[in-house]
Design a protein that fits this description.
By secondary structure, the protein is mainly β. It folds into two domains: 97 residues, Immunoglobulin-like; 159 residues, no CATH class. The chain is built from one helix and 24 strands. A hairpin with a 2-residue loop joins strand 23 and strand 24. The longest helix has 21 residues.
Length: 301
């Protein structure tokens, strides 16, 4: 009896071994949550890739390639995805390098999927504007400071709420100017110090000690602190023409032309209330806690 029990155990082990050896190391299916993706230069997004397999997945190498690395690059996220005995999910990071198109290919076990990547600069559609006057808020003794808000039609400029795009441009004018923007070219300051806050300059993006965002910013499909570029102002009657070519800290170009009037707000007047700041949250612009602007600078990294 003991012999037959031992023999049965051996037969079970052999059968299990034979069954295991018959399982192929194979990718049976590969899929992705996206077949196309739009990116902005310098910014990244992700693909969720799901692999179904039999056997040992480690014996089926997975490769990620870009058909044009000058436009977009690809790599697997360092964060491990979820897995079961027969499936695994991986996060693939795609980064925009320059305007153009590229095809991302994922290859595993002889099976492939592709995703078409389109990379663009930022070309806002802005149809309304507001001009906020701050006076010599930085005590530069050389210039008055203004914040220019240009927004798409879905934004309420009074509350800075809505869905769409906002371009925020902080600029400096001569001390004699208090209610308008003189015509001319305004260039971005590269070294943000009080001494450089001269007329016809732009203030690059920075965050103050209370975490308020000041300077030049773009809020839309991405939130972009702007650090380079210029705007050119001309005016006929009450209507401005503002041509802007600006660059965020990742190198994405934000460019276009706004034509129209600007609603004027004097923030130095008692009736104007507290200063206004812009934050973006989940596709909507929300009014943050209003804190008076600090007079010290802290550059955004």
């Amino acid at each position: 009896m003991k012999k037959s029990i031992k023999l049965s155990a051996v037969l079970v082990s052999v059968c299990a071994l034979l069954l295991t050896s018959c399982i192929n190391n194979e990718i049976t299916n590969i899929s992705s949550d996206k077949t196309s993706l739009n990116l902005v230069v310098g910014h990244a997004d992700s693909l969720a890739v799901t692999l179904t397999f039999t056997g040992d997945l480690a014996k089926q190498p997975i490769t990620y390639t870009s058909g044009n690395t000058a436009v977009a690059t690809v790599k697997e996220s360092a964060i491990a995805g979820t897995s079961t005995a027969t499936t695994t999910k991986k996060t693939v990071i795609v980064s925009g390098v320059s305007p153009g198109t590229a095809t991302i290919t994922v290859l595993a076990g002889g099976k492939t999927i592709t995703c078409t990547i389109t990379v663009d600069d930022i070309f806002p559609t802005l149809s309304q504007g507001e001009l906020d006057y701050w006076g010599d808020v930085y005590t530069s003794t050389t210039s008055n400071n203004f914040t220019l808000y240009l927004a798409s039609s879905g934004i309420d400029l009074t509350t800075l709420k809505g869905i769409g795009e906002i371009l925020v441009v902080e600029l400096n004018t001569p001390l004699t100017v208090t209610d308008s923007i003189p015509t001319g070219t305004y260039d971005m300051i590269t070294d943000l110090t009080t001494a450089n806050l001269l007329p016809n300059t732009l203030v690059p993006a920075y965050v103050d000690d209370s975490n308020n965002q000041w300077g030049c910013w773009y809020y839309g499909s991405v939130t972009s602190p702007i650090t380079l570029g210029n705007i050119v102002i001309s005016k006929v009657g009450a209507n401005y023409t503002i041509v802007y070519e600006l660059y965020d800290y990742l190198g994405a170009k934000i460019s276009g032309t706004y034509t129209g009037a600007l609603t004027y707000v004097d923030t130095t007047a008692a009736a104007a209330g507290a200063p206004k700041s812009v934050l973006k949250s989940k596709g909507n612009f929300v009014q943050p806690t209003l804190i008076p602007r600090k007079m010290t600078f802290r550059k955004r990294n």
